[in-house]
Design a protein that fits this description.
The structure is a homodimer. By secondary structure, chain A is an alpha+beta fold. Helices cover 22% and strands 33% of the residues of chain A. The first copy, chain A, has a six-stranded antiparallel β-sheet.
């Protein structure tokens, strides 16, 4: 094999590897994957004892700022709220503590009263498991539960108390 | 009142107001307040059923990167791990969900094997309530519980599963 061919193949292999590591999942309910949510700040946490899951509620900058100011009814345009859901287990070294086991899914609500006027002012999306496989069975499965809080702009969570002092 | 005096008083009032909003709490156990932790990324969540509290485990950039890479025994020098603790309550609109009520405290572990060699390689600090009143009763109250996980570099939490895909 000559050097030119070797380096060409090396470049092709490298580009495949990079794309495999950085490729975003396909859209869910026609909504693009919110890249980088793993580093978003937190809004709340919860433990659902009816389906044995722990939840972390996070937000993009617009949502987090609204949460901190208590301006959440309605949430401002451009807010993205994420809910990261894990099955629960007992902590090995502290048996009365319930902690995350396997990742179930990450769900997101995208606020835009005009753009998503047909789905209550929000876009609704979900990516499943560590592979973040897109959910594409429509938004009704989301909004049917959330209709219980339609007077809270369709959001269950209250922002958790945080000190304003920095 | 002349204009000069008026503006002088205005400036003094403004500076008091700024300092009241940005002043950090006093040190806890001789450790400085980790400014801006409210916007740190998350490492895990937990629900302690023995004392009815929900917990959010966060980290500074060094700690979060270590958590994501699974390089946490030992945690790298400069890691700061935070645990934000709230009393629990039932969510009004979903009774089987346990959510945060009143903020109890925010606790932090500061990793530096040399600097904190006398306290197991960590500095231990706690700020109490929304006022973030510093805890100054020494580190023994922290490390006595954490000694159960001394073989895990004194840290209870495992980083929660997160997708590597972005």
């Amino acid at each position: 094999m000559n050097f030119r061919l070797f380096f060409s193949l090396l470049l092709i292999a490298a580009s495949f590897n990079v794309s495999a590591e950085t490729k975003s999942p396909e859209p869910s309910n026609n909504l693009d994957y919110p890249i980088g949510w793993q580093n978003w700040a937190s809004i709340a946490v919860s433990h659902r004892t009816d389906n044995n899951t722990l939840r972390l509620i996070i937000g993009n900058n617009i949502a987090v700022q609204a949460a901190r100011l208590g301006k959440t009814n309605p949430w401002p345009k451009g807010s993205i709220i994420g809910k990261v859901v894990w099955k629960e287990k007992r902590l090995e070294n502290w048996q009365s503590a319930i902690v995350p086991k396997k990742l179930v899914h990450a769900e997101f609500m995208f606020k835009d009263a005009q753009k998503y006027s047909k789905t209550h002012g929000w876009g609704w999306a979900r990516w499943i498991g560590l592979e973040q496989k897109p959910f594409n069975k429509g938004t009704e499965v989301c909004s049917s539960c959330h209709s219980a809080v339609k007077n809270r702009d369709w959001v269950f969570s209250d922002p958790a108390q945080l000190p304003k002092i920095q």
